[in-house]
Amino acid sequence: MKRxxxxxxxDHKKSNGLFASGEIFVQEKxxxxxxxxxxxxxxxxQYHTEDRDIVFGSRNVVYKNQKDERKSFAHAIxxxxxxxxxxxxxxxxxxxxxxxxxxxxxxxxHTLEYNFDNIPSVVGFDIWDHSRNKFVNPKDAEYFxxxxxxxxxxxxxxxxxxxxxxxxxxxxxxxxxxxxxxxGLVLKNPATNVWSKIVRQDFKEKNSKTFGKSKKQQxxxxxxxxxxxxxNARIRKSVxxxxxxxxxxxxxxxxxxxxxxxxxxxxxxxEAGNVFMKESWEIDTAESRSITSSRCARLLxxxxxxxxxx
Length: 310
Known about the structure:
This protein has 2 domains: 13-200, D-amino Acid Aminotransferase, Chain A, domain 1; 208-306, no CATH class. Helices cover 33% and strands 17% of the residues. The protein has 8 helices and 9 strands. Helix 5 runs parallel beside helix 8 (285-306). The model is unreliable at 202-214 (pLDDT under 50).
């Protein structure tokens, strides 16, 4: 099964070609957990079973054996098994001409307060075409996911000619799934096969709003790095990632054994270019790790006390 690529911001080198030609499809970026699925027939024969037609995975783990399926994804897996017959996936593969991986968002609580009583357990958003090694065109994916599989597709908010992007007003709308602003936007250019993202938190933080301390209170380079680039939203996301990937079954302080490193690595992967190219701080890396660890512990303890994750 294809692993969903980590999307970069439009100014990242891996997003080169996003605005080169063709059309850009704009979709809401969802705040849940990445789930993927395909037909069990595509697994090695040793993993085939008599009572399973569809195999699932989180972002990083393929559940080759049913006993490996994580409790946090139980609602999403049950929903797909009850909604999507194997024949529907096979029909898409017959049309496309080869194996596909279907991606969706498992809609369980993370950071945004969606209206969970009135949204499906899974919202689909992409299909990977293995034979062509590329994403299926978003309009075709919308048809396949909604009309063939029978599950909801993350709405296409707009379609813009790539050459007109500079004149396009980028705004993050209200979410389709609750009375909250969407987490951000996903930008998809099927002509160049470049997918990118814009995250709402960035709009706030890049315009001088930071979490925990104001910029005037950030005296050292280590503090600036931690408070401006390692946001509360990033820490919360990393907490939920540890649960979604099965490292922990629920919120607990034991997460601190891994959480600071997960947070720092996530920041480095996404923001290293901005830090090195736009900032001129002297950074004590040991101090930065210490500050980040303390912030992780405070926020994790707060999440546990609030019973943020059910």
